[in-house]
Amino acid sequence: MYSSSQQKLENDMRLLGKKIKQHEENIKFLRTHKNILDDEITDKQVTLGKYHSSTAPKIEDGDLSHMQSEEATIGSIMKHEKSAAAIFHQLKRHKNQAAHIKDVLGVVATLGKVNDANLSWLLSEYLGLDNMLSLVCISYDGIKALATYDKGGSVNKSSGLYGLGAAIGQSLEGRFNVICLENMRPYVGEFMPNDPQRRLDLSKPRLPNGETPAGFIGFAVNMIHIDDANLFYLTHDGNGLRETLFYTLFSRLQVYKTRTEMLQALPCIYDGAISLDGGMIKCNGVYSLGTREEIDVKFPITSGVSYLPEAYIEVEKEMKELKWRRERMMEDIQREEAMLAHVKYGFEVKKQEFLGFMAQSSPYMMPYPVQVTPKGRATPR
């Protein structure tokens, strides 16, 4: 008969064998569904390809001005040549270097657009130059790749963005801001129904008498036009730029027609306000007085109109969701594979212990050779 130690080892192996089988079945299930997603993504890519091949792009006047405005914004960024934002745009032109910054989504100033030059100036001034030049990363892994430090806390200027900048002849000086989307606390609430821009369904401010203040236009976070590709499924939780980046930057900043109307609405202003004639309240009780600040890096201007067919936009959205689901599926597969490797290692350790006991056993107690299987059973051969 087996000793109590041998019996425990056999029971442990039997349990580990069941876990091995379960992880293998999980991996098989996940890979099957990943293959289905791959096929669906390919189908969507074919559909989008047909749009590209069957329709010649038409450049409308509004679209052309939008392109020129975006180029002007990038040109303004490049004037700050020793900034991280300028070096980022330089690296994008060097394909061999661009791979090192693939987790950087862009610069705040280029990730949103507005449909009015005055509003662009006001919102850009409200955020300030440091925020406008901030890099935006999707995950913290992207941030870690941008700067490394030695044991003393000093920046390693031969690696990260400092090293990449030096490689193309651009030196990076001082600190630079980086925003991580996945570390942000996103907006929790509803979105405006049937709105292709996924604007936040925020309650209008109310005066003590229950009325909406005169001159209230809307919330700044909803006045930013975001490219379709950045509206959905950027983060691990499926959030887009409006409910993460721009909600963090603007919160519930209110926009009014005039300074006078803005001041009359003070009882219901909690996260700051601006007016189209230059009034600015940074936050509750903090006023920005004097003349407007000249800021050279501003949001690009757009007509706010998409010239792509609605069907194209819908297919592109569906493909982005499929790719997001595939990424999550791959994470699940990698997690299952890691757990499988761990359990197999544990099984092998128990197996060797079991065989050690068998080798030490009396031939009268074990008259036949034993084969140990991954199912956790000791069977005669």
Overview of the molecule:
α1 packs antiparallel against α12 and α2 packs across α3. The chain is an alpha+beta fold and 381 residues long. It contains twelve helices and ten strands. The two termini are 18 Å apart. The longest helix has 51 residues. About 5% of the residues have low confidence. Strands 4-5-6-7-8 form a five-stranded mixed sheet. Strands 1-2-3 form a three-stranded mixed sheet.
Core attributes:
5-stranded mixed sheet, 381 residues, 3-stranded mixed sheet, alpha+beta, elongated
Distance between the termini: 18 Å
Structural class: alpha+beta
Biggest sheet strand order reads 4-5-6-7-8
Mind telling me the C-alpha Rg? 29 Å
Helical percent range? 40-55%
Mean pLDDT, nearest integer? 83
Major sheet size, sense and barrel closure: 5 strands, mixed
Tell me what portion of residues adopts beta-strand conformation: 5-15%
Query: In total, how many beta strands?
Result: 10
Contiguous runs where pLDDT drops below 50 for at least 5 residues: 55-67, 364-368
Short description:
Keywords: Coiled coil. With 381 residues, the chain is α+β, with helices and mostly antiparallel strands. Helices cover 48% and strands 8% of the residues.
Summarize the SSE layout with pairings.
Blueprint: H1 4-54, H2 61-79, H3 84-92, H4 95-98, E1 104-107, H5 108-111, H6 117-127, H7 129-132, E2 135-137, H8 140-146, H9 160-167, E3 178-180, E4 216-219, H10 242-250, E5 254-256, H11 259-264, E6 273-275, E7 280-283, E8 286-287, H12 310-360, E9 370-372, E10 378-380
Helix pairs in contact: 1-12, 2-3
